[in-house]
C-alpha cells in the first residue's frame, strides 16, 4: 500500500491527521470528537483499535478531545514528557519522545520538533514512512530555526496559517485574546507561514504539497490564506500546491504523485 495522508479535522474545533502506509497507521492529534475520529478512520478502512499509535503535539483540548477513547482502545500514545504529564496520561501504554529525538513506531520513523506555543512541552512531528516524509507543525507562535530543515525534507507539509494579522487586529476578539494569538507562544499568521516556507524551501529541489492548518474561522479565510502563502513563496521563485484544510470532513487525502488539481477538488471549501 502506498502512503496516504488524510485530514480528519483542522482548527479550534478539533485537529487530527491520519498517516498510513505499508501496514502502518498513525494519527497525529485526536482533538476531534470520538465519533468523528471513528468516522474518519472508517472512511479510510480503519478502526481506532487498529491504530499503531497516536502522536500528540500538546495537551490543548482541540488536540486531545478523543484521548479517552484512544486510551480505552489501548492504542499507544506518544508525546513529549511534558505533554504526557499535562494531559494526565499514565505511563502504561504511553511513550515519551524527546524534542529532537527519534522513535521507530511500527515501521515509521518519528521525530519530535520543538515549537513555541503556550503549552507544557509542545512539538510538531516529522514522520518518515515507506520513503515518504510528512512534517506537521500546526500550533506555533513563531518560526523556530530547527523547523526549516524538517520542512525542506518533507513531501507533504502540514503547517499552521491561523490568521490574517489585519483581520485579527480589527476583529471582535477581546484585547487579551488578540495579544495571546499574536504572541511568540500563540499562533502563526498567514504572512509568517509564507516567510517560514520561503526560508525553508529556498534552493530545495523538492516540490512538496503544502496543507495550511488551523485556520481561524473569525480571523482568516481559506482563499486569503492560500493567496498570501502562495505569493510569499512565489517571490522566491518557488512553486508548490498550497491547500487550506477544511475544518470538518475527512475526504481530503494526499498521496505521492497526486496533482494539485486532484488534491484541491476533494471537498475543499475555497471561499
Report the average pLDDT across residues: 91
- What is the helix fraction of residues, given as a range? 25-40%
Name of the CATH first level: Alpha Beta
Spell out the CATH superfamily. Answer: Ribonuclease Z/Hydroxyacylglutathione hydrolase-like
CATH fold node name: Metallo-beta-lactamase, Chain A
Distance between the termini: 34 Å
Low-confidence stretches: 259-271
Strand proportion: 25-35%
Number of domains: 1
Main beta-sheet annotation: 7 strands, mixed
Shape: globular
Radius of gyration: 17 Å
Number of E-state strands:
14
The tally of helices reads: 10
**H/E element order:** EEEHEHHEHEEEEEHEHHHEHEEH
Structural class: alpha/beta
InterPro entries: Metallo-B-lactamas (IPR001279), RibonucZ/Hydroxyglut_hydro (IPR036866), WalJ/YycJ-like (IPR052533)
Domain Metallo-beta-lactamase: 13-187
Keywords: Hydrolase
Protein name: Metal-dependent hydrolases of the beta-lactamase superfamily I
Explained architecture:
The chain is an alpha/beta fold and 271 residues long. The chain has ten helices and 14 strands. It has helices spanning 34-43, 61-64, 67-72, 81-86, 147-152, 165-170, 175-182, 190-201, 222-234, 260-264, and strands at 4-9, 16-21, 24-30, 53-55, 77-79, 94-96, 102-105, 108-114, 123-129, 132-137, 156-160, 209-213, 242-244, 252-254. The strands form two sheets. A seven-stranded mixed β-sheet has the order 6-5-4-3-2-1-14. The chain has a seven-stranded mixed β-sheet with strand order 7-8-9-10-11-12-13. A hairpin with a 2-residue loop joins strand 9 (123-129) and strand 10 (132-137). The protein is globular, with a radius of gyration of 17 Å. Residues 259-271 have low confidence and may be disordered.
